[in-house]
Amino acid sequence: MRIVVLVSGTGSNLQAVIDAVKAGELDVEIVAVGADRPGTYGVERSAAAGLATFVVDFKDYADRADWNAALTKAVASYDPDVVVSSGFMRIVSPEFIDAFGGKYLNTHPALLPAFPGAHGVRDAMAYGVKVTGCTVHWADAGVDTGPIIAQEAVEIAPDDTEDTLHERIKVVERRLLVRTLAELAAGKHA
Ligand code: GRF
Q1: Residue 125: helix, strand or coil by DSSP?
Q2: Which of 31, 49, 134, 150 could form a disulfide with 78 if both were Cys (CB 3.0 to 4.6 A apart)?
Q3: How many angstroms separate the alpha carbon of residue 116 from the centre of ligand 1?
Q4: Per-residue confidence at 46, pLDDT binned at 50, 70, 90?
Q5: Which atom of ligand 1 approaches the CA of 88 most closely?
């Protein structure tokens, strides 16, 4: 199974995928890692791991449609079976998702449909829920919407900050992402 992974940040979830592939625990080929802006640690660590990388900088395009078209072209050039949004902080167009047969996987640090958007951890804490978690799902063109594949709960501790909670969620998120990719590679969730 060929995957392209899209990142906007540090790519620690991506690193878990890289490590699992290297360890022979995950039978997928990371054919490229792409970002929406230059200078991400996600791209840097991928290049260091010997992976192909690309940047389709949002700022280089006149509008979102142009950027989406360029992103679609860049990703399609690697002919992926599945595209993974791993901390990719931009909404892609329906045309992008169609171009990859709807195989656009996203991870989110909350129990969807609760707390979608860029601040899922902060919003869950602000609401005062006692349990949050993470979700791996097929993404459609909405904000963190689309069919859910896997979820796991994480309790919020009274002394949690957004950072401590997010780190604990990410430990679970990495495991769920690697497991889901292994299941996809084995032909599940088609
Ligand atoms: C993850 O929690 C992801 O769900 C969220 O941003 C975080 C990305 O972390 N959208 P990293 O870049 O993989 O470290």
Answers
A1: helix
A2: 31
A3: 13
A4: very high
A5: 10
| 118 DSSP 8-state letter | T
Is any ligand 1 atom within 6 A of the Cβ of residue 46? no
pLDDT band with cut points at 50, 70 and 90 for residue 189: confident
Mean pLDDT of 122-132: 98
| Rounded mean pLDDT, 68-72 | 98
Atom index in ligand 1 nearest the CA of residue 42 equals 12
Measured in whole angstroms, the distance separating CA 34 from the mean position of its chain's CA atoms is 11
**Rounded-to-10 torsion of CA 33, 35, 39, 40:** -70
- Band (pLDDT 50/70/90 cuts) for residue 163 is very high
Distance 2 CA to ligand 1 centre (A): 21
Nearest CA to ligand 1 atom 4: 108
8 lines ligand 1 (CB under 6 A): no
Give the confidence band of 141 by pLDDT, cuts at 50, 70, 90: confident
Q: Is 137 a catalytic residue?
A: no
Alpha carbons 105 and 83: distance in angstroms, whole number: 6
> Per-residue pLDDT averaged across 24-38, rounded?
97
**Cα-to-centroid distance, 11 and ligand 1 (Å):** 7
Distance of CA 133 to the CA centre of its chain: 15
